[in-house]
Amino acid sequence: MKLNPYCLLVALVTHVSATAQFRFAPEKPQVGQTVSFTYTPQGTPLSADSTVEGRYVYYGAPNNIHLSRPTTATVVRQSATFVGQLYVPLKNASGIMLAFRNSKQPKRIDLNKGQLYAIPIYDANGDALPHAIAGQSSVFSRSHFMYELGSRPDPDRVVLLYNQELQQNPALYPMYWSDYLASQIKQKKPGYGPKVKLGIETYLASRPAPTTADLTAASQLYESMGDFPKANALREQMKTLDPAGSMVLKDRATAVRNETNWERKKTAYLAYQKEFPNSTYLPALTVMMTDGYFKNNDIKGLVTFVEQQPVSHTDVMMLNSMAFQLADERRSLPESEQLITRALSILKTQAKPANVTGNWETEKQNRQRQLMNTYARSLEQQGKYAEAYTAYQTVIQPDDIDNSDPRTNERYFLCALQANHATDARPVIEEAVQIGKATPRLKTVLRDWYAKQPGNTLAKADAYIADLEADIRADQRDELQQILINEPAPAFSMTDLKGRTISSASLKGKVIVLDFWATWCGPCIASFPAMQQAQMRFQSDPNVQFLFVNTREGGPVQRVHNFMSKHTYPFTVPLDGNQRVSRAYKVQGIPTKVVIDPKGRVRYRQIGYSGDPEATVNELSLVVEMLKEGK
Predict the structure, then answer these.
(1) Domain membership flag for residue 176
(2) Whole-prediction pTM value?
(3) Cα dist from 99 to 102, 108, 235, 329, 341, whole Å
(4) Which residues form the Thioredoxin domain (predicted)?
(5) Residue-range definition of the domain harbouring residue 465
(6) Which terminus of the chain has a lower count of CB atoms within 10 Å, N or C?
């Protein structure tokens, strides 16, 4: 049926603003032609703008909505008018829709009062093509064009366009019925519910054999109106109609996912995999099962399972995390190596994952380094030091030590020592120490190795490390100088766990480190290994005293005794049961570290624990050294 010219005129007129003149030629463009248009923004938000551009989409039948990809149209200013051209594709397009905006300030935009500007396309007889009107509604309801432009579709406009198209081309109703009814739901005019439900029932009754697509659309319409019984009934009908259809696949996949018994879950997964090998739900289920094997500590089963899966069903970064955890914990080390070897093999041929943005080759190189780091760790923990050293060499980037990981640097040098390559690794490690990318252990190992070299002594090794760290420690000192405080230190006297009296008077002239803590405080306990390292640095210095003040315990003292007996930290633990000392020292939360200088002044106070032991040791040690020097 041909489109009534009067109806087309109505549709066109609604797209021509009374103030913003939009014209195009030829008057009735056809496919394969170039359309010239003029745009005069007088009376619009762009009336005073000189940097204007067009944004347009092609449109056609609803199943060709992929045409509606926003594209920029270049326009040229000619006095108060902008002119441009657009080419009409040879296939599938029934029209073009445009908006205009400031190219430098995209939020300044003319949407023709939400209707956009339309250019319908005609056939050789001068009749508008099918979808010339309703296709505009598809742009509003099926594409993201309006959202990209910072606006929302007008539901009344969408319904009006569908009405006009379907009045003139009722044969198109099967293509538009669900979109048309959905637009009425969004419009929410009084009485829309019964009207839409009648529309659904009428349409389904008119179909000799409703397809799964029909039933899916109908169930979604019912669901959007809150009629879940009818929506579920249609889904059950879909399962009967298509036993291998999407609804069945989804329900079966959900059943596998929700199974809590691990043995039954494995059985259900294998049955699903066998019955629906091409299901789109299978990759996600496979990843879930991979995680399940790991969480159930069936590591041998995990390796067997992973090696049986296709590349497309395997998450290499998940395998990397699992393999590293196994290696780091020194458990199932051969399996750790097998898992990471499998991940490396998959990465070589892996296509770009859907969740990866940006350049895949660059991301692939980053992942390769992460996987090789895990591979090296697995080899190292098995005592395969020569192989691990070679693997670490692919991870360590001498030109980018600034972005290196201190723990990786430490492992690299330890493997180099074991593989007799310490001299080769030395330049990289020296730079790591110089820029603060070395752990305390790495610096100790480097110092001890250096001391054993011909002609060296431990004193020379200490000077060697000090020289490497000179610049960064100077920078750190400057930074710390900015946060040091200067307050009088209140006098205190407490009894420790051994019954001894610990007082500020007896420690006069010393640097005193107070660590306020309680057995129930997780961050307090987490910081203890770092605090132990800091204390060990000064264990031979009679002018430095660490005190681990138990406060806010809220329970019997025996709990503190039990804790210290169990963990055997070499700490002096004074008891601040009444919180008198913690209040005097302005402790607002625990853990809190307070450092007192030899003159009896509070110079440093830090609340909380960052979780970085190296940073904690370095900062606290520097503070102590600076205060010893009278800084």
Answers:
(1) no
(2) 0.58
(3) 11, 11, 40, 60, 53
(4) 483-629
(5) 396-479
(6) N
